[in-house]
Design goal:
The chain is of the alpha+beta class and 590 residues long. Helices cover 19% and strands 24% of the residues. The chain has 3 domains: 212 residues, Neutral Protease Domain 2 (Neutral Protease, domain 2); 136 residues, Glucose Oxidase, domain 1 (3-Layer(bba) Sandwich); 204 residues, Jelly Rolls (Sandwich). The longest helix has 22 residues.
């Protein structure tokens, strides 16, 4: 948890990965300065070379066709021979056992003639990994690719069978589908390990190499792909999913690699980075951290901060590095224009300014282009409209805290809106503050924005009835967020269920109390997180069908927007605007 506070960057997506990086490299800097935890040999490795002190990581390379050629992340098997370089290459053939899901290879294959001498592609499910690989081996396969049958990150394969003599690896559902889509054209692949050269005898830039619980180092700052982390943004290992806060641990490999390259130098990704050494790099990164970077700094902003810091420090005598209370004294070094050129090359080498890869296909929380509420009513009558331009005076504000640290937050009128929107909106804050310790600094709590009574006209010519609202959400994903509740005729408030939304329903269910979430809304459906790959949201309209909630003509309703948070770590908050209650004419609806 200390990593979250190393730099106070929002712990999601690229800023969270950058926070991990600052934790990693400052740990390495301290070790290098005081010698603690630095193992020998500590020699500089060749570019892309793994260390002999880490477990080799498998990699799938598609050689052809060109449309899908490239490297794909893969998981290792605990059985069979280890992969090597150059590995096993061959044509890929889909397994067929003739029963059930024919490609799961849970029984003897019936297409042995096609499999023999080639790499078998089999699907996960219905039986053990060892059974699948052994059946492919018995059919004459020289290697096996096991494709996952559910979405998710790369994972390994457990099991034991000493009779298995061919290598295998596991890929994601997306990778498996990519291969299957081109089998008719002929797919040639190589099963091997990461690294274009033999592993080298050095502990330098390994993270956690002495932690016995992990078996070997957990990260490699010099060659991140050797530990299944990306070394540049476009690497196949780049984490796209929302899990792990958007890949904060995995994607830290990119800026980690940048720091190591800048210290030791090397040619990578077509760019030659001249070494500037540890003292200069430490001063650059500290200035970027302490002067320029903000809680929302992403990789591109990190590049800006490093370049600005470098220009600031040109010609400035640098203090030596020390981990004690006694200053080290002058280092005799100063940043030069050539050092700043090295910073530029490093930024290009690890692609700090490159957008995440296309395979991420990031999507916004709220879709655009809302459908018409009614089929034949272009301008459905509205009998409640709230744009918050005159403040929140007609609405009732309440809040509740969980611990003594609750600061008594309420919804407010925001007059400066994100996304370039003009005007005002109601705003429920999600501050990037607090401590998740249940003490005086724990800000777990909830704020409510309750509408006045809204009367549904007692007319048989109107219906169904709808609530629409425009909103923008940017919160700590899964832990903080908000939802809409409704009270009918003075009854208790109920969460508007996802099924009642006609457009843009909740995007998630908040983490439960059992999972450690101290948000009063824990376990409820809600709007939470940010747009994919970003720390920001975007405006969209949600539509709720009141008829599905049992609301009838003549009823009185009240709406309540609840925004809740756990004890620490936030982002921006939830903005709500243009709340309307409307009805279709003559009950005609799309």
């Amino acid at each position: 948890a200390y990593t979250d506070y190393t730099h106070n960057l929002i712990y999601q997506w690229q800023s969270g990965a950058l926070n991990e990086t600052y934790s990693d490299f400052w740990g390495e800097v301290v070790d290098m300065v005081n010698g603690a935890g630095t193992d020998a040999p500590d020699t500089v490795r060749s570019v892309n070379a793994c260390s002999i002190y880490t477990t080799p990581v498998p990699l799938l390379t598609i050689n052809s066709p060109a449309s899908i050629a490239g490297e794909y992340a893969a998981g290792a098997a605990s059985f069979g021979p280890s992969l090597s370089n150059p590995g096993i290459a061959g044509s890929v053939v889909l397994a067929d056992d003739g029963t059930g899901t024919a490609s799961d290879a849970c029984t003897a294959l019936v297409n042995g003639a096609a499999i023999a001498g080639n790499i078998a592609l089999v699907d996960r499910g219905a039986c053990a990994f060892t059974i699948k690989v052994k059946n492919a081996q018995d059919a004459g396969a020289v290697g096996v690719i096991v494709a996952d049958n559910v979405p998710g990150p790369v994972a390994g394969m457990a099991g034991a069978d000493p009779t298995i003599t061919i290598p295998s690896l596991r890929v994601t559902l997306d990778t498996g589908n990519t291969i299957k889509g081109e089998l008719a054209s002929g797919v040639n692949a190589t099963l091997h390990i990461v690294g274009g050269s033999a592993p080298e005898d050095s502990y330098r830039w390994l993270m956690g190499e002495d932690a016995t619980a992990f078996g070997s180092a957990i990260r490699d700052m010099w060659a991140p792909t050797c530990k299944s982390d990306p070394g540049k943004v476009t690497d196949a290992e780049y984490h796209c999913a929302t899990s792990d806060g958007g890949g904060v641990h995995t994607n830290s490999g990119v800026p980690n690699h940048g720091f190591a390259l800048l210290v030791d130098g090397g040619t990578y990704n077509g760019h030659t980075v001249n070494a500037i050494g540890l003292v200069k790099a430490a001063h650059l990164y500290w200035r970027a951290q302490s002067v320029y970077q903000t809680p929302t700094t992403n990789f591109n902003g990190h590049a800006d901060a490093l370049q600005a810091s470098c220009q600031d420090l040109i010609g400035v005598p640098l203090e030596g590095l020390s981990t004690s209370s006694t200053p080290a004294g002058p280092s005799g070094q100063a940043i030069t224009a050539a050092d700043c050129a090295a910073v530029d090359e490093m930024i290009a080498a690890v692609e700090l300014r490159v957008d995440p890869p296309a395979q991420c296909n990031f999507q916004p929380i709220l879709q655009q282009n809302p459908p018409a509420l009614c089929a034949e009513t272009k301008n459905p009558p509205k009998f409640f409209v709230e744009d918050f331009e005159d403040g929140l005076g007609a609405w009732t504000l309440t809040n509740q805290g969980v611990f003594a640290g609750w600061p008594g937050l309420d919804w407010t009128q925001a007059t400066t809106l994100p996304g370039g929107l003009s005007g005002s909106a109601a705003f429920g804050a999600d501050p990037n503050a607090g401590n998740c310790d249940g003490g005086a600094g724990d800000i777990s709590g909830m704020m409510s924005l309750e509408s006045p009574i809204i009367h549904i006209p007692n007319s048989k010519t109107l219906g169904p009835h709808f609530v629409t609202f425009e909103h923008y959400v940017a919160t700590e994903a899964g832990w903080d967020g908000g939802n809409l509740k409704i009270s009918v005729n003075g009854g208790p408030y109920q969460v508007v269920p996802p099924s009642a939304y006609k457009f843009n329903p909740y995007n998630t269910t908040l983490q439960t109390a059992a999972a450690g979430n101290t948000n009063p809304l824990a376990g409820q459906p809600g709007f939470s997180g940010t747009d994919g790959g970003s720390l920001f949201g975007s405006w969209g309209q949600s539509q709720v069908n009141l008829t599905m909630l049992g609301v009838k003509p003549g009823d009185n309703i009240r709406l309540r927007f609840d925004m809740g948070m756990d004890g620490c770590t936030g982002n921006d908050g939830w903005y709500v605007d243009n709340v309307t209650v409307a009805a279709c004419n003559a009950r005609k609806e799309p």
